[in-house]
């Protein structure tokens, strides 16, 4: 075959493969049955949202007492390899301590009070582990844990997380979420029955979120995670069971993904108007810092 013909074949293959990866959206084939939950599931953000210290065990207890469908928390790895519940990469904003989570042992983190800066009558609210959070939610609600792994390299966090789900036979009660698609890919390789959640938004961090980030801790979202064309290709490789979508993502993107059958969580509407707007879209779930208001509006809708 002449060189010209080989080039034409190669170009055709590139066109077909590129078209499949970046422009074709196959129907949802994940582990969750049905793209809608009736009623929409209300998850309280970071424990109990604005009603308790950030990512605290107190927040989980209050959420379960309030009959929330689930809680959204954040998981990081400590210096000694434990999976701890904590949001920021550094402890400065939320506790009376300083330094990064990954540079502290679990015992050191357990000495840092989340209640001191939060106030509102809370005392002695110390960071907990994923296993402790699982004990508090098991049989009562779903535990969604965002695994924070900023880079591409494996840290061993996924193995620890999967082992605990297997130990407690909690596959249907735990959702692991991440902005990092490699984390979700590794989770599925370890155990295909693990429920994974791909988090995304169309923009980079807004001013409100930037206020929570200590200088030096900012992890900029790569452009391809903020672009639906590239996310379409990513979803084919990681095969997420659910999507956690910022509520300001383009309406047509959210609608299209729902039509494909994806169970979608919208995050994090705060005002009554924002929550109502999210509920009108009939997502699988809503994650909010105002869970009691969202629950009330959900029951009225």
Question: Which short descriptors sum up this protein?
Answer:
301 residues, alpha/beta, 12 helices, globular
Q: What features would you describe in this structure?
A:
The protein is an alpha/beta fold and 301 residues long. It has a single domain, classed as Alpha-Beta Barrel (TIM Barrel). 37% of the residues lie in helices and 15% in strands. The chain is built from 12 helices and 9 strands. An 8-stranded parallel beta barrel has the order 1-2-4-5-6-7-8-9, surrounded by 7 helices. The longest helix is centred in the first third of the chain and has 21 residues. The protein starts with a helix and ends with a helix.
Topology:
Layout: H1 3-23, E1 41-45, H2 57-65, E2 70-77, E3 83-85, H3 106-109, H4 115-118, H5 130-137, E4 142-147, H6 157-167, E5 174-178, H7 181-190, E6 195-200, H8 207-210, H9 228-238, E7 242-246, H10 251-259, E8 264-267, H11 272-280, E9 285-288, H12 291-300
Parallel strand pairs: 1-2, 1-9, 2-4, 4-5, 5-6, 6-7, 7-8, 8-9
Antiparallel strand pairs: 2-3
Helix pairs in contact: 1-9, 2-5, 7-9, 11-12
Question: Structural class of the secondary elements?
Answer: alpha/beta
**Secondary-structure element sequence?**
HEHEEHHHEHEHEHHEHEHEH
Query: How many structural domains in the coordinates?
Result: 1
What's the CATH C level? Alpha Beta
Radius of gyration: 20 Å
